[in-house]
Write a structure and sequence with these properties.
Layout: H1 5-10, H2 27-38, H3 63-77, H4 106-113, E1 135-137, H5 138-142, H6 144-148, H7 154-162, H8 164-167, E2 170-175, E3 186-190, H9 191-205, E4 233-238, H10 241-248, H11 265-276, H12 288-309, E5 340-350, E6 353-366, E7 387-392, H13 422-437, E8 447-452, H14 455-464, E9 475-480, H15 481-489, H16 497-503, H17 514-546
Parallel strand pairs: 5-8, 8-9
Antiparallel strand pairs: 1-3, 2-3, 2-4, 5-6, 6-7
């Protein structure tokens, strides 16, 4: 039987139709009051209120707190911790930590970290390094973060460089300036050790630091000995900062051989260029006239060196037979310097995407093959000794450039084209270098001279393929036919390959095929070297007649 409102009043219980305010009751207390008001027969069908006695609190949504939480989650996903922003990195902990990169397993990382360079372990202080060993100046290594690392990666990479004398093993070498033996020597390390150091950084913090491509890479791959009379001398090995400081005081005093008194003129120039290659990029720029003179001299050196390699010009140290004339219908009168192999590379990329390599042309000329062979006009009689290859990337063989240039990948005129897969293209190029470098398996690597027309572009494309010519054993020089023609004609700008060929009266066809371009570029190099020499001889004879 239901209890009415009248009955409730008789029980002396205050009841009102108004809502109860400020009712601070627990769930159990509320249930007991309801039973008192409604009688003992009142029951909850489902006891859904909490079993523990808790005061029900109000729920407040703080929008600012939610915004802070969202920002923190975004920062965490981006690899940042808002609590540590602005704090200095902790240099007391080891900076080399196992990589979490999927590209490098723990085993590979450990193998990288424990890599040693045993060929330097047995060297003694003052001992000469091997010829053609690649070196980089220690000053340039120390400036690498500020010069070659972007603002994004610099904060996480700089600690490695600040601790590199404490956390890494280095082998140090020195070279005295032959004209200033009273000054402190220049310090160098093997380039392969710096490469290894960059690999460690990349594996530790997932960056992609490399030696810069193109022209700047040359100062990271300095070679000594083959073109000058001295090689860097060993100081010692350092694995801690204390050892590093001790080695600074252990450099032997200069000796007579450090003056390089027997060096040729060209050899001395080569040595001094190596010693100044690491000069700071942030030094005040020279005057415009001086820069132009230096560029002109560099272009002229392309011709000078090519003539030395081809026996067209005598070595500076040679006195007997120095005045012998070059006659195109007779064998060259001088020794072919350095016993080199010329290798020309031309790379064709997609017009709309320069990272897509469509073709690679590779052409070689071994100077041993032309010993005793008359060159002919512009070197025509040497052309048959040139060997050419043409690689078309199988994955992109359907792509033909036609917007800016007229590509013709199917018109290779010097043999049969090859079709390697994209993944195999790098190995094809590296194997070609290796075959030249180690042609004599039981002897030292052959000297290689890389040739190109506008070579900096091809070097950049090769770097994108992880091909670094200056790391190839025996690589001693790069020659650019664009620079050679500009120096020969004393022009203010370089010309296209087709213009250079026409200027030399060398017939050509089907250019913008990588294989053909490489073959014609090497022909142009021969023609420029010979024409520059014969023109020089003609000018000298004319002056003699006039006087």
């Amino acid at each position: 039987m239901a209890t009415t409102q009248t009955d409730l009043k008789t029980q002396d219980v205050f009841v009102t139709d108004e809502p109860i305010e400020d009712c601070n009751l627990t769930s159990d207390q509320l249930a007991e009051r309801m039973q008192e008001l409604l009688g003992e027969g009142f029951r909850f069908e489902n006891r859904t209120y909490p079993s523990k006695s808790e005061v029900i609190e109000k729920i407040i949504l703080d929008t600012l707190a939610l915004d802070r939480q969202t920002a923190a989650l975004k920062a965490a996903k981006a690899g940042k911790d808002p609590r540590t922003q602005g704090q200095q990195p902790d240099h007391t902990r080891p900076i080399y930590i196992p990589s979490s990169s999927e590209k490098l397993s723990t085993e590979e990382y450990n193998r990288l970290m424990t890599k040693t360079f045993p060929k330097y372990e047995t060297m003694k202080p003052g001992e000469w390094s091997e010829e053609n060993t690649k070196f980089v100046a220690w000053d340039l290594v120390k400036r690498y973060p500020s010069n070659y690392i972007g603002k994004t990666n610099r904060p996480k990479c700089t600690p490695f460089f600040k601790n590199m004398t404490e956390e890494h093993t280095w082998d140090f070498f020195y070279v005295y300036h032959p004209k200033a033996l009273d000054q402190a020597p220049f310090i160098f390390i093997p380039t392969e050790q710096f490469d290894h150091f960059l690999d460690i950084i990349n594996a530790s913090v997932q960056t992609k630091l490399t030696i810069p491509p193109g022209k700047p890479s040359e100062k990271f791959y300095l070679t000594f000995g083959s073109s000058c009379t001295i090689c860097p001398k060993y100081i010692g090995r350092s694995s801690s900062h204390n050892e590093y400081k001790a080695l600074q005081n252990a450099i032997p005093a200069p000796e007579d051989e450090d003056a390089c008194k027997e060096a040729t003129v060209h050899g001395m120039e080569f040595l001094l260029a190596n010693l100044s290659a690491h000069a700071k990029e942030d030094q005040p720029k020279s005057k415009s006239k001086k820069r132009k003179q230096e560029k002109t001299q560099s272009r002229e050196e392309n011709i000078y060196d090519a003539q030395l390699y081809l026996g067209i010009r005598p070595l500076p140290s040679v006195t007997e037979g120095k005045d012998k004339k070059v006659k195109v219908d007779e064998p060259v009168p001088h020794v072919l310097d350095k016993d080199v192999v010329f290798m020309c590379i031309d790379i064709e990329v997609a017009e709309e995407h320069h990272g897509t390599v469509l073709e690679v042309g590779m052409t070689t000329l071994d100077t041993r093959d032309i010993v005793g062979v008359p060159p002919g006009e512009v070197g025509r009689d040497w052309f048959p000794y040139i060997k050419s290859r043409h690689l078309i990337t199988e994955d992109y063989k359907h792509i033909v450039n036609k917007k800016y240039i007229k590509g013709c990948p199917d018109l290779f005129d010097f043999g049969e084209s090859e079709y390697p897969k994209r993944k195999d293209l790098r190995d094809e190029i590296l194997n070609a270098f290796a075959e030249l470098s180690h042609a004599d398996k039981d002897k030292a690597p052959r000297n290689i001279v890389l040739v190109g027309h506008g070579l900096s572009s091809d070097l950049t494309f090769m770097t994108g393929m992880d091909v670094h010519p200056w790391s190839v054993p025996g690589m001693i020089r790069c020659l650019d036919t664009k620079d050679m023609q500009q120096a020969w004609r004393e022009e203010t700008q370089g010309r296209s390959l087709v213009f250079v060929l026409q200027d030399l009266d060398i017939p050509s066809k089907n250019l913008h095929n990588a294989g053909n371009d490489a073959a014609y570029t090497l022909r142009a190099m021969l023609g420029l070297a010979i024409r520059a020499k014969t023109d020089e001889q003609a000018a000298t004879e004319k002056n003699v007649v006039v006087s």
